[in-house]
Amino acid sequence: MTSKITSGPYSKYKFRGHVWKHKGHGGWFFVTLPRSLSLKIRKDHGLSEEGWGRLKATAKLGKTSWATAIWYDSKVQSYLLPLKASVRRFEGIESKAIVSLELKFEMADRQ
What superfamily would CATH give domain 3-100? Predict the structure, then answer.
């Protein structure tokens, strides 16, 4: 289930997702955003994307908030959210966990 809350200069999206570990070098952990949510975010904030589909955001998992970015993965047609090791450790999150997250984006000036 996802939801969008727009408040002032920000919009927030809440969702649940599975944590997974990338098999490549470094073993980064990610959550793939639901495709429907990715479409909403791209519609609302796509003009703010930087190179490689990077979109700056503030993420919140449990009691922990951090500045981050999500990346659009055209193979799965969804954004990927990397989970910092320090956040995973503090919140006790491991691979294959189902987590509740919040993403906050600044509203782009659309003049």
Answer: AF2212/PG0164-like (2.40.30.100)
Instruction: Check residue 46 and give left, alpha or beta (phi > 0: left; psi -120 to 50: alpha).
Output: alpha
Q: Tokens 């990346």 map to which residue?
A: 71
**DSSP assignments along 64-110, one per residue:** EEEEEEEEEETTTTEEEEEE-HHHHHHHT--TT-EEEEEEEEEPP--
**Of the candidates 96, 92, 104, 110, the residue with the CA atom closest to the CA atom of residue 32:** 96
User: What's the rounded Cα separation, in Å, for the pair 107 and 48?
Assistant: 9
Averaged pLDDT of the chain: 88
Q: Beta partners for 72?
A: 79
What pTM was computed for the model? 0.85
Token pair listed for 65: 């908030």
Query: Domains of the chain: which residue ranges?
Result: 3-100
